[in-house]
Structures are given as structure tokens and as C-alpha cells.
Design brief:
Elements: E1 5-10, H1 16-28, E2 32-37, H2 41-44, H3 47-54, H4 70-76, E3 80-86, H5 88-95, H6 102-109, E4 114-118, H7 122-126, H8 128-139, E5 143-144, E6 148-151, E7 157-161, H9 165-177, E8 190-196, E9 200-203, E10 206-208, H10 215-226, E11 230-236, E12 246-251, H11 254-265, E13 270-273, E14 280-282, E15 303-305, H12 309-315, E16 323-330, H13 334-345, E17 349-354, E18 365-372, E19 377-384, H14 385-400
Parallel strand pairs: 1-2, 1-3, 3-4, 4-5, 8-11, 8-13, 11-12, 13-16, 16-17
Antiparallel strand pairs: 6-7, 9-10, 14-15, 17-18, 18-19
Bound molecules: cytidine-5'-triphosphate.
Length: about 400
Amino acid sequence: MGRPQVVLGVSGGIAAYKACELLRRLTESGHEVRVVPTESALHFVGEATWSALSGNPVPTRVWDDVHQVPHVRIGQHADLVVVAPATADLLARAAHGLADDLLTNTLLTARCPVVFAPAMHTEMWEHPATQDNVATLRRRGAVVIEPAVGRLTGADTGKGRLPEPAEIYEVCRRVLARGGALPRDLAGRHVVISAGGTREPLDPVRYLGNRSSGKQGYALARTAVARGARVTLVAANTGLPDPAGADVLTAGTADQLREAVLKAAADADVVVMAAAVADFRPAAYATGKIKKRDGEEPAPIPLVRNPDILAELSANRPRAGQLVVGFAAETDDVLANGRAKLARKGCDLLVVNEVGERKVFGAEENEAVVLGADGSETPVPHGPKEALADRVWDLVTARLG
Ligand code: CTP
């Protein structure tokens, strides 16, 4: 088997320069990339750059190399087409099936999965015309990544930023790994995911925390976006880049996490509590740094219980049919302890991590058994956190009906 053939379409927005980084990631990970920029993209980044970075000639017009019929061949031979940045104009032309340049011809002839990474000003993104075009493209099976929120060209900030190239690359890799279009079985669903670990402050410089990296929660967010969900990710102290297409909220403490999750859960179809929430917090917060005193033992730190968010969510579901998923790390009697915890928390699924030698905080891989309130038991073998995430979504979609 040859190297996967990727077409990188670039349309005319200032974010075109970020597509160079995406191109570099794709080539360095063994993909054969043909870049197809639009005429206006070339105003931002020139042909020489695309050609040098891809190691391939860069056709820009339908009229280049006509004897090779490029307007048909490039799309036909692709395993994946990714358009980054996709401007409002490009999305409109793609949604309407126009074929007025080489990139839109390629989109019409491609039978492989197609990923669009839009970038534009907030007003253009929110305009009903653009939203209709995005809905049309998604209905036809394309993956349209939600733009990120942040600094736009000039002084503006808002939704419309191109997601980080590393995130677009991850989406491409996943789409290719599945050997075709991703299942869109979470389309129209709102899922809320908590990730990371809470920190309970003791004084302005110290906290009680834990070693959760947030990687499993982020893998859940990425895979849910890829399967079509609207994703709200509540991140506690992770320092990880925002997953493309997810709305990311941040929380520091268990209380802040609780507030953010409960608010987002009001209209959610699924809530997944992957965050490691501190069970206790210091009873008092010292506004000044706690000082040591020579010759004195340190005073004990009184702790109080934090609310159990998972149990609260499971007991008071704001929406009928809402599914609640919890996580648990167990060392001994994994299944018995897991079953007892599932019953105690009242959630629908509990992902029980077997804490063993190979399990390290911050690792890229994981293994687990997913217990269902219906008595089911699904072992998930050691593998990437995204594989476990996809298995969780399989179990969730089967229960959403
Ligand atoms: N959890 C929560 N709120 C808390 C503590 C935990 O929502 N205050 C959630 C976690 O997000 C996770 C699940 O509960 O989904 C299990 O957490 P875990 O720490 O394993 O369970 P505990 O109830 O703390 O049980 P124990 O520490 O006794 O094993």
C-alpha cells in the first residue's frame, strides 16, 4: 500500500499561513500531500512555499497541465481532502456544487472523506447563509470543524479562528484511520465532558491537587466532535490545546467545575465526568501565604467534603433521557468495587480504569472495563485513549435510542 494521498485545499484567508504547519505535520507523518490553493489563497502564501513544503507541483488553475485532466484526477485519487482555511465563500461554493476553480472541481470529484476547517470573522460565520451551507455540507457527510474562539484579524476577537494546526491534523488522522467517513451518530446531540483535575487552594500559592492530565477527557471531546456532537468541554487545570470544534470552559476548583458542568448539562443529551474531582478542600482559605514558624509544628489543615457532582447529576437529571457517564480508578477487586460505585453514584455507565503497572498518569494509552447500570460489562483492551473514547461513545449511542 502506498502512502495515504491527501489533498490540502487552501482558500483565501489570512489563516492560510497556518496551513503550512498542517502541511508539514501531514508530510512528516508519511502522507503524500497535493496542495490546491485558490487564486485568492496565493495572495497570502505563494506557490513556492506550498511546492517546497509538499515536495509536489502546485496546480492552481483548471487550465494547468490540461492533458492530465487535473480537475478530475486530483479528487479521484485522494484518500482525504482537507480544506484549511475554508472561507465563507469556499463553503458556499462547495455547498452549492459550483466548479469554478480547481479546488471546487476537486471537491466535486472526490469520493473520499472531506474535512473543512473554516476561518472567518464572527459575523460571517454566524450569518444564516454560512450556517445553512455548513449544515448542507455536514448532511452530505463532510466533517466541518467548528472554528475556535479567540483573536481574529485586526483587533477583533470572537468565534471564527482557524483551530490549531495540530488539532486539524488530529481530526484528519482520525478520519483517515477509520478508513472513511466517521460515523455521525452523535449529530444533533449536545455532550458535556469534564476533564483534568481540580485544585483546591490553601493560600495564594498552594493547593491540594491530583495528577490527572486531562488526556482521556480531551480524547472524548475530540472523538465526540468527529462523530458530529456539539461538545462542551469543562477543563480543569490541563494546559492542553483546545480540541478543535469543542466549546471549552475552564474551571479551577471542584465548586467551579460543578457550577460549569451543571449549567452546561441543562440542555445536554450526555454528561461524561472524566475529571478527577477533589473529594475534599481546605476548610479555610488563607488570604496571605501561610508562614512557618521556627520551633513550631505546622498546624493541621482541616478539610471539608466537596459535593459529589456525578451523584448529583445522576439523581437530578435536567432532561428526560439524559445519559450520565462516570469514571473510576480502582486497584483491587476492580469489578466488585466498580459495581458498588456505579450503584452508589447512580450513573448509567462507569468506565473503570484498572490501575496497574502500565497505567501512568499523563500516558497516551489506557485500558478499562465499562460497566453498565443494565448489568453489561465491556472490557476495552490496552490501547490509545481515543480508542477507549470511541468505545464509550459506541455504548452511549446504543443507549440514546
Ligand atoms: N466525582 C465527582 N465529584 C466528586 C468526586 C468524584 O463528580 N466530588 C466523579 C468523578 O468525576 C468520577 C467519579 O466521580 O467520574 C468517580 O470518582 P472517584 O474518585 O473514583 O470516586 P469516589 O466517589 O471519590 O470514590 P473513592 O475515592 O472512595 O474510590
